[in-house]
Every structure is written in structure tokens, then in C-alpha cells.
Write a structure and sequence with these properties.
alpha/beta, Rossmann fold, 7-stranded mixed sheet, 5-stranded parallel sheet, 26 helices
């Protein structure tokens, strides 16, 4: 039997198992959490199987995040069986795993619209449902938000539960530990579910562990523990401390929860996150705790659970395109055209081959940033710091202090999390950290939480910073070479998601002159000054404008900072109208050009200048093409703007 046939057989098992258990669907009867309150454990197990099947079938048609959701099916069922949402707040961190939650909370029949225009968001979204108490998309926010809701409840005299569900990957971020440290020092009742899917279910996560977790989460045990602590507090101080440490270490030996206990949490676990016999009694116990003690329940799950291709390649099936359920094969169109991410990896490896001082850093995104390829070739020079963008930036600053050349590859939307470090630890000290900013511009179906439209504005505001944006793959190669050669200041190269155009790529890039753009075609009426990958649309627009008798110059700025002042002045002096085009928001490249021209007195005469930027709003999930169309940044919109400007008296 071939490997593919083996996977195919395993992939079909979930559907066979469903048909064996029952001929009557439970999921068809479930529209809201209230519909599962009275179900037995056997019924909930069957419902979990159906729920898993529904997720697989839906995501196979829409694409989306698959593995994380499959891993928390039983946990989701247990939470909604035990807690009373939406009165009780269930806060899902990141939101990659929220599809089963959506199905159980009135959105089952809309799952086929997932991540499509006017359809369901791929994450939790407050405007979408009352069952989504907090919006997600970026990691490590759930404990902070949950603590805020718990404190607000206490101030209001409420009695509802607040449950924050967070993955072990998200726990690597400082924000999560800041929140836990704060929660541990307060008396607000909060439940944190640590969804640990990095480790396999080891022997401690079985009947004995489930039994112990049930005992130590029970009201009787908590009452006994509190009584013992009260008695110990009346004993001499040394005896009290000894008793407390004995209790902590005894439980730590059994459960491994010392870290969380030290932060002030009462630790329960680890528990098999796919065993409802273990999950439900423990969740009922922590639900019924009356004291204002924060509790952490450690749950072990398997990412991709129940679907063999996702279990055996959890990273590949974290986020998927449309795929064939039987084979697990994704419907990705074959293309020999590389992505910008591929070109970045090629360019960086070419530089690293000639310079041992070049190192690479990413924040839990080695594949997404292309640094998995770099790590395979230079394992000792590539560092994955986990979901910790703030640390990644300051870590890179420390490396730069010692004469090395760090390239920090982070998605644009995630770099926002580390802006203070970019400003204070890099720009202020003028350290030559190189930022490779992937997913700049629109990103498509992930929507507003992941768009990279703000980095031009927030980076160009910083002194010392060089900001570049390539129009194609060749330009990206040159800009990585430019960053590698720039040792006197920080640099940033921003590039979009998706395939890149351009001629055959060189083996290695050639460093550009800092702050110098290029002219690709010359005209006399309208100048189009593009920054980044909208250059191809500017070229298309120029072709259409020439047909209308409007002579067009097309220039590639290359640098958002420093701008090419000589080029900008030349375009202003030699044309009736100047249009800047960028994949960023107001306050970016176009604003800097306008400010420069105003200070030079060029706006006092007949010159007309218009910046074309992303609208001042959060644009929701859709295809990238539709998002650029909505933002009016395609060729037809550039044509409309140029024609309008040409006829203004």
C-alpha cells in the first residue's frame, strides 16, 4: 500500500465511524448551546464526531484553519455543555480553533461562507455573535481580556463565569504572562484553559491523571486545602512556609503545575482533552468554585485530531486551501512563479553564503516567512523565538550591538505588536537591525486583523529608519542586498503576500543607492509615482491613459524613507499632475511626498497632487483582488484619477 493510499484510508475513517454509531444525526438538532445541556456523555461523544466531520467538510470547500479546530472539538463541546454562554464568557485566543464554537452557537448553516465576502469571519468577532465576547486574530490576548471581564463582573456584582482558552504556543508571549501575573495577585474568579497540543498524550494523561484532576478541582478538596492553609497561617512562620511548599511541590510532582502556582493560579491537570469523561467533571468543579481564585486547567489535545492528514502534518494543515477529503491533497494551482516569501528566502541565503555575520530571526513563523529554508541550510544562524515579537526585535537589537547582521522576519500585522521595541531599542539607538516585513498590504481571507497596511506610516515616522518596498522579485533581491550592506542604521523591506512578477531572478541581489528611485517610462502630462507592488497596475493604467491621449510617466519610488527628493521634484516640475500609489494607509508615503512638496513651495502653483492609499477603515475578509478593488488601488482607479485630474481647470 502506498503512503498516499494509506492516508486516504485513514482520512475516510472519521466518516465510517460516524455511520456505525448511529443513523440519526444529533448535530442536525443542535443550533445553540442550550440544545446540548441535557445530553449524556455518549451523546456528546457522538456529537463530537459529527462536529469534527462538519468542520472537515466545510473547510475542504472554503479553506481556512483546520488543525487547531479539530484538536478542540471535545473541549468545545464540554465547555458549552458545562458553561452557560453567552452569560458565561468563553474567550478563544487567536481564534484559529473557533470553528466548532461557531457551529454550536447559531452559525452552523453559515459555515460554508467562512472567510468569504459578507460571510463568517475566520476568527471570533464581537459584531458577528453575542457568543463571541472578544475579537481575536492575534495571539495571547485572551487572559488579559478575560481578567478585564472578570473584574468588570465583580464591580457590577455579577455571578457569571469567565473562561479564557489559550494555546501553549500563545503562552510564549509576554502578554500572557503579564496577564497571569496580574490575575494571580487579584481575587477575581477566572478560569484559564491551557490547550496544550505540542506534546503527545503521555502516560500521566490517563485514568490516574483524570482521577487526580477531578479530586483536586473538587469543592471538598479546595475547602480542605483552604482549611489547612488557615490552620498553617496560625502556626509559626517557618512551619507555615514549610507546609505551603510541601503542598506545592507534592502537587507539582504529580501535575507539573509549579510555574502556574507560583504565578498565583490554582493548577489542575494535565487532562486528556479528548476524553469527555475526564473533561466534564473537572469543568463542572471549576465552574462551581465560589472563592475568587484564578484556576488554570491544563488540557492535552492533538492538533488535527480525527483527520489523519492533519494529524500527521499538523503544520501543513494549520491553515489550508480547499482540499480533497479523501486524499487530503490541497487544491493549490501549480505555478513556477515564486512568491515574494520564496524570493526573500533565496535572497537572504545568497547573502548569508557570502557573509557569516548574517543571522535570521522569526517569531513562530518559520514556514510562513520562508526561514524554514534558511534554517535548513544555516541551522545555527536561524532563531525561532516563539510568539514573542517584542522579544524578537530587542533580541535582534542585542545581536546587532555585537556586530552581527540580524534579519528579523515578521508579518506586517504582527510587527505592530513590537512597535515600542522598534522605536526604543532599534531606531533610537540607530542599530542596524534588518526588518523583513512579509504580508504587507492586503492579505485576503484572514481579513482586518491580518492586513499589513500600517507599517509604512509607523515606520517612516521614526528617525534613522530606511523603508523599502519592492515592485517585483528582482527588486526584492536587490533590497535584501541593500539591507545586508547597510551597517549604519536600521532598514526595513516590506513585501506583499502572493506571487511576484519580474524577470529571471539573479543569483544574488545588488545593493541599491539609499533613497533613489527609478523611472520606467517617460511622459509629459501625468506622473504616476508607485511604491511597492502596485507598480504593475500603474503600468497598466499608463497603457490605458496613453490610448486616451494622456502622456504618462511611471516611476518606482523604491524607498518610502528617505524619499528620492530629486526624483519627486523632477516629476513635479515636468508634469501637470502627480499621483502617488501605495499599499498603505493615510500618513504614509503619499503624505511624506505632499509634505516635502509643500515645504518646497511646489503646491502653490498649478501642480495637482493626489495620494492613492488604503481607505481609512478596517476592510474585512474577501479575496485580495476584491480588497484592492474596494480600496480603489487597481489600474482602472488610477486611470479614473488621472483623467479627472487632467480635466480640472
Amino acid at each position: 500500500m502506498t503512503y498516499r493510499n494509506s492516508i486516504k484510508d485513514k482520512a475516510k475513517n472519521i466518516f465510517k465511524n460516524n455511520s456505525k454509531k448511529s443513523t440519526e444525526s444529533l448535530l442536525n438538532k443542535v443550533n445553540y448551546p442550550s440544545d446540548i445541556k441535557d445530553m449524556s456523555i455518549d451523546e456528546l461523544e457522538f456529537l463530537s464526531d459529527e462536529l469534527r466531520k462538519h468542520v472537515i467538510e466545510s473547510v475542504s470547500k472554503t479553506g481556512g484553519h483546520l488543525g487547531a479546530g479539530l484538536g478542540v472539538v471535545e473541549l468545545t463541546v464540554a465547555l458549552h455543555h458545562v458553561f452557560n454562554a453567552p452569560k458565561d464568557k468563553l474567550i478563544w485566543d487567536v481564534g484559529h480553533q473557533c470553528y466548532p464554537h461557531k457551529i454550536l452557537t447559531g452559525r452552523k448553516d453559515k459555515l460554508h461562507t467562512l472567510r468569504q465576502k459578507d460571510g463568517l469571519s475566520g476568527f471570533t468577532n464581537r459584531s458577528e455573535s453575542e457568543y463571541d465576547p472578544f475579537g481575536a486574530g492575534h495571539s495571547s490576548t485572551s487572559i488579559s481580556a478575560g481578567l478585564g471581564m472578570a473584574v468588570a463582573r465583580d464591580l457590577d456584582g455579577g455571578d457569571n463565569n469567565v473562561v479564557s482558552i489559550i494555546g501553549d504556543g500563545s503562552m510564549s508571549a509576554g502578554l500572557a504572562f503579564e496577564a497571569m501575573n496580574n490575575a494571580g495577585s487579584m481575587d477575581s474568579r477566572l478560569v484559564v484553559i491551557l490547550n496544550d497540543n505540542k506534546m503527545s498524550i503521555s502516560p500521566p494523561v490517563g485514568a490516574l491523571s483524570g482521577h487526580l484532576s477531578r479530586i483536586i478541582s473538587s469543592k471538598q478538596y479546595l475547602s480542605l486545602r483552604q482549611t489547612a492553609m488557615d490552620i498553617a497561617s496560625k502556626l509559626p512562620k517557618m512551619v507555615e512556609l514549610a507546609a505551603k511548599r510541601a503542598e506545592e511541590y507534592a502537587k507539582g510532582i504529580v501535575t507539573g503545575g509549579i510555574l502556574f502556582e507560583e504565578l498565583g493560579f490554582y493548577y489542575v491537570g494535565p487532562i486528556d482533552g479528548h476524553n469527555l469523561d475526564h473533561l466534564i467533571p473537572v469543568l463542572k468543579n471549576v465552574r462551581d468554585v465560589e472563592d475568587g481564585v484564578p484556576i488554570l486547567v491544563h488540557v492535552i489535545t492533538k492538533k488535527g485530531k480525527g483527520y489523519a492528514p492533519a494529524e500527521e502534518a499538523s503544520d501543513k494543515y494549520h491553515g489550508v486551501t480547499r482540499f480533497d477529503i479523501g486524499t487530503g491533497m490541497m487544491n493549490k494551482p501549480e505555478s513556477k512563479t515564486p512568491s515574494f516569501t520564496d524570493v526573500f528566502a533565496k535572497a537572504l541565503m545568497a547573502e548569508a553564503e557570502h557573509d557569516r555575520k548574517i543571522v535570521a530571526i522569526n517569531a513562530a513563523m518559520p514556514t510562513g516567512t520562508g526561514l524554514d529554508k534558511f534554517a535548513a541550510k544555516y541551522p545555527s544562524r536561524c532563531f525561532d523565538v516563539g510568539i514573542a515579537e517584542q522579544h524578537a526585535v530587542t533580541f535582534a537589537a542585542g545581536i546587532a550591538c555585537e556586530g552581527f547582521k540580524p534579519f528579523t522576519a515578521i508579518y506586517s500585522s504582527f510587527l505592530q505588536r513590537a512597535y515600542d521595541q522598534v522605536m526604543h531599542d532599534v531606531a533610537l539607538q540607530n542599530l542596524p537591525v534588518r526588518f523583513a516585513i512579509d504580508r504587507a498590504g492586503f492579505v485576503g481571507e484572514d481579513g482586518a486583523t491580518h492586513h499589513g497596511v500600517f507599517d509604512i506610516s509607523f515606520l517612516t515616522a521614526l528617525p534613522n529608519m530606511v523603508v523599502m518596498a519592492p515592485a517585483d522579485g528582482v527588486e526584492l533581491m536587490h533590497m535584501i542586498a541593500t539591507a545586508a550592506a547597510t551597517n549604519d542604521r536600521p532598514t526595513a523591506v516590506r513585501y506583499p503576500r502572493g506571487k511576484c512578477s519580474g524577470a529571471d531572478l539573479p543569483e544574488k541581489g545588488t545593493a541599491l543607492e539609499i533613497g533613489k528611485g527609478r523611472v520606467l517610462r517617460k511622459g509629459s502630462d501625468v506622473a504616476l509615482l508607485s511604491l511597492g507592488a502596485r507598480l504593475a497596475e500603474c503600468q497598466k493604467a499608463a497603457d490605458e491613459l496613453e490610448k486616451k491621449g494622456i502622456s504618462v510617466t511611471v516611476a518606482d519610488a523604491r524607498f518610502a524613507k528617505p524619499i528620492d527628493e530629486e526624483l519627486v521634484l523632477k516629476l513635479a516640475d515636468e508634469h501637470k499632475a502627480l499621483i502617488t500609489v501605495e499599499e498603505g494607509c493615510n500618513g504614509g508615503f503619499g503624505s511624506h511626498v505632499l509634505t516635502f512638496l509643500a515645504l518646497k513651495g511646489k503646491l502653490d502653483g498649478e501642480l495637482k497632487v493626489r495620494p492613492m492609499t488604503v481607505p481609512d477603515e478596517f476592510i474585512e475578509h474577501d479575496t485580495m483582488e476584491a480588497q484592492y478593488d474596494y480600496a480603489k488601488l487597481n489600474a482602472k482607479h488610477i486611470v479614473e484619477m488621472a483623467v479627472k485630474m487632467s480635466y480640472i481647470s
